[in-house]
């Protein structure tokens, strides 16, 4: 009888699990909704984080009036179950209020106008959402990305023709990269003694600015990206914006830095990028690459799930054979491009600092 009960319990848990997975789209779409409604800033109020009811939140996000508090509460309750909000009740349990957890606070706009909110919005734009029903096509025909099948051209070309999408992507990358670079600068000393630093795919130059502020020994920073990207980059003291194509050549430097570049390209393309980095470095020079590194074995930790989910995003939107790689795969790529030494440094929970030494 005990075995029968255990089997029945396991079957019930399995059915609940598959129902949760089947309805999982509710999570990112609800997250998208609270970002659009600016709920996090409404609750945070310069750090007070005072618990508010759905009606009170609506008064702040829709000051002109209107809105449906009950529907907002439904969204907040669901996200509470995923740790974005905390739930509070008054003494008799008649009123439900919400505050931000540590997770929810990542959506609060900081003094620089940045948060993870833009990253949420960027991932869930209509044109990207149209690619997701075609994920199976990446298995059937890996020569064409699901995004291309849905929209007719590669994602980066599509963004480049639409300034509003390109702007959102740059803001999303800044919102994610600034806290990451702060973590790197706090826990990594690999920029000491560097005089000329090249940032490949540096976008607006935020990371170079932060590195130079911490390491004044970097007298010359080169922000290298596509010409249409650096054309809009702001002037930064000590930084020169250079447009070009990393598949053709990369500016020379004592150290070359890149973040989140290799994951969106195939093995052969990564080898070409790394070979161009190798050519641009002096003897003993190094490439510092910050990339998601997936564990060899899968598990159900938040970190592994986030890495593997991002891997499917890359496959669906950017390159079907671009991918998040294991430590061993990165080491093999480096050796194939000529680098003699490889060292992974685990500083951030999501991204890993990878040193390739010439």
Question: Could you explain the architecture of this structure?
Answer:
This protein has helices at 2-22, 26-36, 39-44, 54-61, 69-80, 102-105, 117-123, 126-129, 137-140, 146-151, 155-160, 163-187, 206-214, 227-230, 267-280, 302-318, 327-336; strands at 85-89, 96-100, 196-200, 220-225, 239-243, 255-259, 286-292, 341-345, 351-357. Strands 5-4-3-6-7-9-8 form a seven-stranded mixed beta sheet, with helices on both faces. The chain has a two-stranded antiparallel ribbon with strand order 1-2. By secondary structure, the protein is α/β, with parallel strands linked by helices. It contains 17 helices and nine strands. Helix 2 (26-36) packs across helix 7 (117-123), helix 4 crosses helix 5 and helix 12 (163-187) packs parallel to helix 13 (206-214). 47% of the residues lie in helices and 14% in strands. Strand 3 (196-200), helix 13 (206-214) and strand 4 (220-225) form a beta-alpha-beta unit.
Offer a few descriptive terms.
14% strand, seven-stranded mixed sheet, 358 residues, single chain, two-stranded antiparallel sheet, alpha/beta
Which helices and strands, and how do they pair?
Elements: H1 2-22, H2 26-36, H3 39-44, H4 54-61, H5 69-80, E1 85-89, E2 96-100, H6 102-105, H7 117-123, H8 126-129, H9 137-140, H10 146-151, H11 155-160, H12 163-187, E3 196-200, H13 206-214, E4 220-225, H14 227-230, E5 239-243, E6 255-259, H15 267-280, E7 286-292, H16 302-318, H17 327-336, E8 341-345, E9 351-357
Parallel strand pairs: 3-4, 3-6, 4-5, 6-7
Antiparallel strand pairs: 1-2, 7-9, 8-9
Helix pairs in contact: 2-5, 2-7, 4-5, 7-12, 12-13
């Amino acid at each position: 009888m005990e075995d029968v009960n255990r089997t029945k319990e396991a079957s019930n848990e399995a059915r609940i699990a598959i129902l949760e997975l089947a309805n999982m789209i509710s999570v990112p779409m609800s997250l998208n909704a609270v970002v659009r409604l600016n709920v996090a800033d409404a609750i945070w109020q310069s750090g007070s984080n005072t618990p508010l009811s759905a009606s009170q939140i609506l008064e702040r996000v829709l000051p002109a009036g209107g809105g449906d508090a009950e529907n907002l509460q439904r969204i907040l309750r669901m996200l509470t179950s995923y740790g974005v909000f905390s739930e509070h009740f008054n003494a008799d349990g008649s009123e439900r209020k919400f505050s931000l957890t540590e997770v929810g606070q990542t959506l609060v706009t900081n003094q620089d106008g940045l948060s993870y909110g833009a990253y949420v919005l960027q991932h869930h734009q209509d044109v990207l959402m149209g690619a997701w029903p075609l994920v199976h096509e990446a298995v059937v025909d890996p020569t064409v990305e699901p995004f291309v099948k849905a929209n007719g051209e590669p994602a980066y070309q599509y963004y480049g023709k639409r300034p509003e999408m390109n702007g959102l992507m740059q803001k999303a990358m800044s919102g994610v990269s600034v806290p990451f670079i702060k973590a790197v600068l706090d826990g990594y000393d690999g920029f000491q003694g560097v005089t000329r630093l090249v940032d490949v795919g540096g976008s607006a130059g935020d990371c170079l600015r932060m590195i130079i502020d911490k390491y004044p020994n970097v007298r010359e920073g080169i922000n290298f990206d596509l010409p249409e990207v650096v054309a809009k980059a702001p002037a930064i003291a000590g930084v020169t914006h250079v447009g070009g194509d990393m598949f053709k050549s990369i500016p020379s430097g004592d150290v070359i830095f890149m973040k989140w570049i290799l994951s969106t390209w195939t093995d052969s393309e990564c080898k070409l990028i790394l070979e161009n980095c190798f050519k641009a470095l002096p003897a003993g020079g190094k490439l510092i690459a910050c990339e998601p590194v997936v564990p060899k074995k899968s598990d159900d930790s938040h970190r592994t799930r986030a890495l593997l989910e991002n891997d499917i995003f890359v496959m669906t939107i950017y390159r079907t054979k671009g991918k998040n790689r294991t430590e061993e795969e990165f080491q093999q790529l480096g050796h194939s491009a000529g680098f003699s030494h490889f060292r992974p440094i685990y500083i951030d929970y999501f991204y890993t600092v990878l040193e390739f030494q010439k």
